[in-house]
Amino acid sequence: MTATVPDVRRTIGSVEVLAGLLLLVLVVRGVFGEVFLTPVVQTWATVFVSIVLQALPFLAFGVALSAAIAVFVPRSFFVKALPRKPVLAVPAAAATGLVLPGCECGSVPVAGALVRKGITPAAALAFLLSAPAVNPVVLAATAIAFPGEPGMVAARAIASFVASVAMGWLWLRWGRTDWIRLPEHVHGDTKWRAFFGAAGHDLVHAGGFLVVGGVAAATINVLVPGRWLQALADNAWLSVLALALLAVLLSICSEADAFVAASLTQFSTTARLAFLVVGPMVDLKLFAMQVGTFGRRFALRFAPVTFVVAVASAVAVGAVFW
Questions:
Q1: Residue 146: band (very low, low, confident or very high) from pLDDT cuts 50, 70, 90
Q2: Between residues 130 and 284, which one has the greater pLDDT?
Q3: Integer angstrom CA distances of residue 211 from 23, 72, 87, 214
Q4: CA–CA dist 306, 140 (Å, integer)
């Protein structure tokens, strides 16, 4: 047996980039100290810090639970828990998201593992879409981000569940197994190393997207003229579409997106609901992960349809609640 030599080459990752940005801020602050004292910059910093600090505990807790489920929960559990009939397995798989916390970063590999185990892809895909949106951590974060608005929590759970089940049933009707190409599954040497590796990777990865989302939300609230946002928000259909597309572009982890949505007060409640429903199901990082897990042919078909179904579900549920 020949021993493999570990690759010791270093690449610049998110930690190095963050350290560089912090050093740059310290240097720039010394040169342009007066700029940091202006009301606009201070307001921007207040909005940004409040979003990140509120969301960070839920993000850390969510990725830890996601890693624990992916590593320690046997795959046979899902096989035994789901009904044999695919049409019933889809809502059952979507419902497991209510009791199995996890962010979208963890749901994609778990769904791939379920397909490898022989579970119908429709049920695995329903779980993939449902788990990041209706799990207890995300709903608790939503309740804190929208205090005194229990309707937002219920609407998010219902709209996300409906969209997940609808996509599973659509796959049963029109999906094709040859669209899915799963890569070889690689096992870790120990479960604990796999757990800490997965949790650490997801925390750094998702934390980076949270920072980007916080920067974007703070910038929108401070720098974009209020009359522009108000003009967009006053149009019911454009506001929904705008925030749905914003959710795709920002790619914020589902444990943190409610705090960003809550800050977009110019927009209607239904538009912000669309932001919360679309984000955990369709965004740039999810599309990349789906390409890597299921293949490009799958992702190019699945993501656009999911976007349409998620927006339609949010609008329909929003019309009932508000």
A1: very high
A2: 130
A3: 17, 29, 40, 5
A4: 24
